[in-house]
TrEMBL record:
Lineage of source species: Bacteria, Pseudomonadati, Bacteroidota, Cytophagia, Cytophagales
tRNA-binding recorded as keyword: no
Top-level taxonomic group: Bacteria
Domain HTH araC/xylS-type span(s) in chain numbering: 189-286
Protein name listed in UniProt: AraC family transcriptional regulator
Annotated organism of origin: Fibrisoma montanum
Matches recorded under PANTHER family: ARAC-FAMILY TRANSCRIPTIONAL REGULATOR (PTHR43280), TRANSCRIPTIONAL REGULATORY PROTEIN (PTHR43280:SF32)
UniProt xrefs under PROSITE patterns: HTH_ARAC_FAMILY_2
InterPro entries found in the cross-reference section: Homeodomain-like_sf, HTH_AraC, Tscrpt_reg_AraC-type_HTH
Length: 286
């Protein structure tokens, strides 16, 4: 069976493979729909190793990040940090959008090397889609247009991007309550954050319920109400979401992936994967 070359979405490789450009020695790229149409859609869950801010100017699409599904309507901003797996459930790559891709290397002194990690919207379990008011959309659009003008001058672009992130931080708490109100439930977000951190070694509902100081039954009922899935289903689906990314994006063997995900029995994992996807891990990878 022929094995595909893995889709390693490090910053510059992502720009070459997905956006269709190769800006050497740059740590910021501003993409539009014309860029995305060059390389086509991504049809599997994928993890990238940089930051992304995408502003939707029209139409609507839908994205899954971890256990959460988000509508992305007109005037919405999608915000995703590095290492977070996502899947475009519904997407029209010709829809008008402006997306900033950047790495921490864009920021030199006086910025600290880790300040980006302090923004809550870049972390796991965040509200990754922020629906903006007309005024907020106009300001976000103005920030992005200004950043785009200074892409070739990284120190100025970094300062402008920092100002934009600070603006987003100021509006984030209010905006987070305006998209998928049920998903704004603090317990669901805390569960999502815990799952992202512990899924390799903890797959029992009881562990997460204990961490959240609720009963396993209450946690499962809440998740079912807010996401349509029980706690057990959410855990299994999240692990398989990560597995699908690893199968497409790494050269790890099936056995290595199974052990990395925290399973001891590859045959059990293969049965679970087939029951959820309709194919074996090897068939999915091909």
């Amino acid at each position: 069976m022929v094995h595909q070359t893995p889709f390693n979405y490090e910053f510059h490789k992502f720009l070459r493979q997905v956006v269709g450009v190769a800006p050497a020695d740059r740590h910021l790229y501003v993409a539009t729909e014309s860029d995305f149409q060059k390389a086509g859609n991504i049809t599997f869950p994928y993890r990238s190793y940089f930051y992304a801010l995408g502003l939707m100017h029209e139409d609507r699409c839908r994205i899954r990040v971890g256990i959460q599904d988000f509508d992305v309507p007109k005037q919405a901003l999608t915000v995703i940090g590095p290492g977070i797996t996502r899947l475009w459930l519904e997407n029209n790559w010709a829809v008008r959008n402006t997306t900033l891709f950047f790495t921490p290397d864009l920021f030199s002194a006086p910025f600290s090397s880790s300040f980006l990690l302090s923004y809550p919207f870049f972390g796991s379990g965040a509200q990754h889609v922020i629906v903006l008011s007309d005024e907020q959309y106009a300001r976000a659009n103005a920030f992005i247009a200004l950043i785009q003008q200074y892409v070739a001058m990284p120190k100025i672009a970094a300062g402008l991007l920092f100002s934009f992130l600070e603006y987003l931080l100021g509006i984030y708490p209010d905006s987070a309550n305006s998209v998928l109100p049920g998903m704004s439930n603090r317990l669901v977000r805390q569960f999502s954050q815990l799952l992202h951190t512990h899924f390799q070694e903890q797959k029992e509902v009881g562990f997460y319920a204990d961490q959240l100081n609720v009963s396993a039954r209450h946690l499962s009922e809440l998740l079912k109400q807010e996401t349509g899935k029980s706690a057990k289903q959410s855990i299994e689906d999240f692990v398989l979401f990560e597995a699908r990314s690893l199968l497409k994006q790494t050269d790890l063997s099936i056995k290595e992936i199974v052990y990395w995900l925290g399973y001891d029995d590859p045959s059990y994992f293969t049965r679970l994967f087939r029951s959820k996807t309709g194919c074996t891990p090897m068939e999915y990878r091909a």
